[in-house]
Amino acid sequence: MLINVKTFISKYMIVLVLIGLVTLSGIISPAFLKPRNILNIFWQTSYMGIIAIGITFVMIAGGIDLSVGSQLALLGAFAVVISNKLSDQLHSTFVVISLTYIIAALLGLSMGFLITKGRIPAFIATLGGMAIYRSLVLHFANGGVYVSFSRSFSGLGMKFIVGLPLPMLIFVIYAIIMHVMLEKTKFGRYVFAVGANELAAIYSAVNINFVRITTYVISSISVATSAVLLSSMMGSVSSSSTGVGFELDAIAAAVIGGTSLSGGKGSIFGTFFGALILGVINNMLVMLNVAVYLQSLVKGLIIIIAVLLQNINVSKS
Amino acid sequence: MRRFLVILLMVLLLTAFAAKFKIGVAIPAADHGWTAGMVWWAQYAIKQYQSDPDVEFYLVTAREPSEQIAQVQALLTRGINALVINPYESAPLTPICVQAFRQGVFTVIVDRGILSEEYNVYIAGDNYMYGYLAGKYIAEKLKGKGNVVIIRGIPSTIDDERVKAFKDAIAQYPGIKVIAEQPGYWSREKAFEVMQTLLAKFPQIDAVWTGDDDMLHGVLIALKQAGRDKNIVLVGGACEKNIVKMIMDGHPLVEVDFTYPPSMIATAINLAVMALKGQSLNGFYQKGIPRKIILSTETVTRQNAKDYYFPDSVF
């Protein structure tokens, strides 16, 4: 019974950390707990959170994807340009989204092939991707900003459904689907197997290259989802600043949520809450009007403490 | 004798085709809207000299200080006559700029100064007035009373100077309160997030000053989404083209903008060419190009906005 309680706590420690953080912020600034602000936090977290969910698959299978930030700008710019070219109607938006997903899948597929068949370490291949995608979007935009003129497209990211912002809804639904995929399907088990022990996976007749490549496709599909939401909400994509630093935030969200950097371990549940913790920190810094130069210090400290708390618990049990 | 004449003729021909003056232009790569504007203006200015056989340009952009140093070294090896440089950072770029000056290269430093007096021309925008005029405008528009939010850029010396000037300007109005000061990192998305959060926190915000127009776009989206896009004074800065367009078309919330022109790089390129050609500035009794030029922060309103609207520019 005692052991059950302990495993329960270690599994849900991250939720306790989040609750603690929210309570603390609420005490210091009551405005933090307004329903409007809670919705905002989900909203602000959703773009990075969706990407973090994709990257969790890659990391559990023992890889890494540094290209997500640049890819976000490239795919977002692609969506904006295509939507400007098509007529301003709802069905054009479906065309835009489908095309963006196709391009994303191709990007993920080629990255996966480079890493598995080309035997380039994931860190290097995706670092190259990060530079190439950013350079491409800068080149096409001449360093400037792509602005959307399509009303049906740019209305999308601002939509509310049953009183909830669309990006938040998609973030939650996406997390649930991906959670089921990782925990309840054969493919999900293969992802863990490939990351935990490659050799054992090969002996168990798992097609490890297929699994690895698929994780990069999932990562790119996640980026595409985020790119469509972000570019339609902002009505624009900046070739120079959109998505900069997203890869680190996404990886951090996964690691805070218990995903191992060396593969074989992790969960969508953890990443979801890891992303929310980062979102709460960003929101809290503004809410509490933390001094400009100290913000990164506060952010860094909270991240370290959050992971430390989980580790202490694990070592005790 | 005949062989000598032929060689002489060939040398003459070659020198006639090679440009007389080589000018190196070194600027940071586009990492946000304003720097992209600077790259665009540098290309624009260079294009103006396309048909001028006397000058030839080498434009390089750098992502970090060490890369820029390497680029300037390469330019010096090429034997440039003038160097127009917007240093990525002051300290690391100082030695190489000084070296260029000592080699007799006409050195024009743009916007971010170096830690030495060894250069020919320094041309920059006016960070103090950029913040001061925005503060003065907001205070007067609010008739000396109201809650103001500052969304500043990347915390840095330039940004500090602007924010200090803004506060100096509003200090004369005790009824004006700064209720929040947060960084938006010169990014639309980040400014949107910050504004969204501040709108949830404060029921009454009378004015917002964003460090530049990119961030003002983010603020506008946040206001619209929260249904609070009325009775609020908004001021950005640096004259991004879409904001200038809004002013031109009589936007109800954005009525004014202040310049911090990325086109200063184009002016600097012109100054370098004029110096090499021995031309002097119109209206000056002195022959030389002035050594220190601080460009004025110009106020853009609906009346004059069309003079500041460059639809082809990227910024």
Give the secondary structure arrangement, pairings included.
The complex is a heterodimer of chains A (317) and B (315).
Chain A: H1 2-28, H2 35-60, H3 68-85, H4 90-116, H5 122-141, E1 145-147, H6 151-156, E2 160-161, E3 164-165, H7 166-184, H8 186-196, H9 198-203, H10 208-234, E4 236-238, H11 246-256, H12 268-287, H13 295-316
Antiparallel strand pairs in A: 1-4, 2-3
Chain B: H1 2-17, E1 21-28, H2 33-48, E2 55-62, H3 65-77, E3 82-85, H4 90-102, E4 106-110, E5 121-124, H5 127-141, E6 146-152, H6 157-170, E7 176-183, H7 188-201, E8 207-210, H8 213-225, E9 233-235, H9 241-248, E10 257-258, H10 264-276, E11 292-294, E12 299-300
Parallel strand pairs in B: 1-2, 1-3, 3-4, 4-5, 5-11, 6-7, 6-8, 8-9
Antiparallel strand pairs in B: 10-12
Highlighted features:
heterodimer; A: mainly alpha; two-stranded antiparallel sheet; B: Rossmann fold; four-stranded parallel beta sheet; 10 helices; 43% helix; elongated
Largest interface: A-B, 37 and 37 residues
Query: Approximately what portion of the residues of chain B adopt beta-strand conformation?
Result: 15-25%
Number of helices of chain A: 13
Order of neighbouring strands in the sheet with most strands of chain A: 1-4
**Rg of chain A, please?**
20 Å
Helical stretch count of chain B? Answer: 10
Q: State the helicity of chain B in percent bands.
A: 40-55%
What's the order of the H and E elements of chain A? HHHHHEHEEHHHHEHHH
Q: For the residues shown, what is the average pLDDT of chain B? A: 91
What proportion of the residues of chain A is helical, as a percent range?
over 70%
Structural class of chain A: mainly alpha
Biggest sheet layout of chain A:
2 strands, antiparallel
